[in-house]
Amino acid sequence: MNAKMKIALVTGANKGIGFETAKQMAQLGCFVYLASRDRAKGLDAVNRLKGLGISNIELIEMDVTDIHSIKKAKQELESRIEALDVLINNAGIAGELPQNLSTGEVKNLRKVFETNFFGAVQTTQEFIPLLKKSNQPRIVNVSSELGSLTVHSSTQNPNYGIYAAYGCSKTALNAFTVMLANEFRNTNFKINSVTPGYTATDLNQHRECKQQRRVQRPLSEEQL
Asked: Among this protein's residues, is 198 annotated catalytic?
């Protein structure tokens, strides 16, 4: 590993957005630890990336809903690296449908929160010490427009209520992001939530979005 390489950890990275994030981070020159709760699927993802000529990537087996698994992954990373530069909390689940909050089972809500919210919180807490050893620590929480209270308060789209439990978990994740960023406001940490926009993945059964979506323009030189 190049000593000057930034080191990133991406959770839930064996498929979907996490896989693509790990791929692009590696292509940008980071050394990426691809975290997967399923070792076989994680190894398959790593091998697929290596098949594309990406060698700066390794597997870390980790289940964000299991604190013992997170601690084990942290100990493993501590034996390999001196500091962690980027933590991307991507692991997430959609939960069982339907998700009507007035009638849905609370156990489904709990299950969604366990991965999407508590999983991100306890992963972040465990890796904070390694992040503090970086000169430019970054934490990115992968959220969704479905976590936006403003969007839900103004939209007429009934489909936004399909993933109500999922949306609530992302709202909580956004609140965690803001509170944590405020806690570290006088440090060299940068902490943000991001939404990749609607993307066809396993989470939504690879359904394509039928709504016309705004295309984001590339950043100008002044914005960079």
From this structure: no
